[in-house]
Specification:
CATH architecture of one domain: 2-Layer Sandwich
Order of helices and strands: EEEEHEEHEEHEHEEEHEHEEH
CATH topology of one domain: Nucleotidyltransferase, domain 5
CATH superfamily of one domain: Protein of unknown function DUF3822, C-terminal domain
Number of helices: 7
Shape: globular
Number of strands: 15
Distance between the termini: 36 Å
């Protein structure tokens, strides 16, 4: 299947009236790239613009690189010269390594211990200050190339880096254990925190709600978390009317939706979105990566 058969749909477009294209050099563009979606927000003193595109028939990173170029051409915002561009790559190929154990010369072996690198993927590294750790992740060279071709002042990260940093900062003064589940279109992340300590992080692919609850209950079993008592917070693109919420609510007693990252002002236009949507994208603004 060729790139021209890939289908792109604009799922969301919200823009504050105060957004000024002439001031683009003073704005930060934050991008979240999934294998099946491209979402971005533009932030000045507050979050001003939010757009999201979904893909179909994109089967490899080479095709995804081509689709990214088409999205940039279709958006009225992405062709501007922003002062800073942060890109978060969403995949399930990442490994956390404590700072004290990290050796840059051995990063490939550290990542390959848990994951297989394919095609033109190479090992990239994020520094997590709140965790005092490195996040090693697979970054396709073709994605890095197209991003640096399209944007100046661009830095590429793993989506879990912003997510973990944001959640550690938000939960540092909260006692007890909490299980936080960030839901994407085809994968979800599970983070278990106790105060300022990260007890667990992993990412899972899911196609059905049964897949979803299987992995979630597996995490509870492995960490000896009682589904009857563990506080569980849902973030990301999951709605109360969804089958995922229904099955989580069925098996886990204390479930609630979370809110947006603090420390950012949000345009009233974003009130059209549930507060727990796109947490990892909004966290890019404050994560300090």
């Amino acid at each position: 299947m060729t790139e021209t058969q890939s289908k792109i749909s604009r799922a969301l477009s919200l823009a504050d009236e105060t957004f000024d294209a002439k001031q683009a050099s003073g704005y930060t563009l934050n991008i979240l790239l999934n294998p099946d979606s491209f979402s971005f927000c533009i932030c000045g003193k507050k979050q001003l613009v939010m757009e999201s595109f979904t893909f179909q028939n994109v089967h490899n990173y080479s095709m995804l690189a081509g689709v990214i170029e088409r999205v940039v051409k279709e958006s009225a915002f992405l062709g501007l010269a922003f002062g800073r561009v942060n890109v978060a790559m969403s995949n399930n190929k990442s490994t956390l390594v404590p700072e004290a154990l990290f050796d840059a010369s051995d990063k490939d072996n550290l990542l390959r211990f848990n994951h297989t690198l394919e095609g033109d993927e190479y090992t990239a590294v994020d520094s997590l200050k709140n965790l005092e750790a490195k996040n090693l992740f697979a970054l396709p060279l073709c994605i890095e190339t197209v991003m640096k071709k399209l944007f100046k002042n661009v830095s590429l990260h793993h989506h879990s880096s912003a997510l973990i940093e944001g959640l550690l900062a938000a939960n540092k003064n909260k006692p007890g254990k909490r299980m936080i589940v960030h839901v994407g279109f085809s994968q979800f992340d599970v983070i278990v925190l106790e105060g300022r300590s990260l007890l667990f992080y992993n990412s899972f692919r899911h196609q059905t709600s049964e897949d979803f609850i299987y992995y979630l209950l597996f995490v509870c079993e492995q960490l000896k978390l009682n589904p009857e008592t563990i506080e569980t917070v849902l973030l990301g693109e999951v709605e109360k009317s969804s089958t995922i919420y229904d099955i989580v609510y069925k098996y886990i007693r204390h479930v609630k939706f979370g809110g947006r990252p603090e420390g950012i002002e949000y345009s009233y236009k974003l009130n059209e979105l549930p507060n727990h949507f796109y947490y990892n994208l909004f966290s890019l603004q404050t994560a300090g990566l």
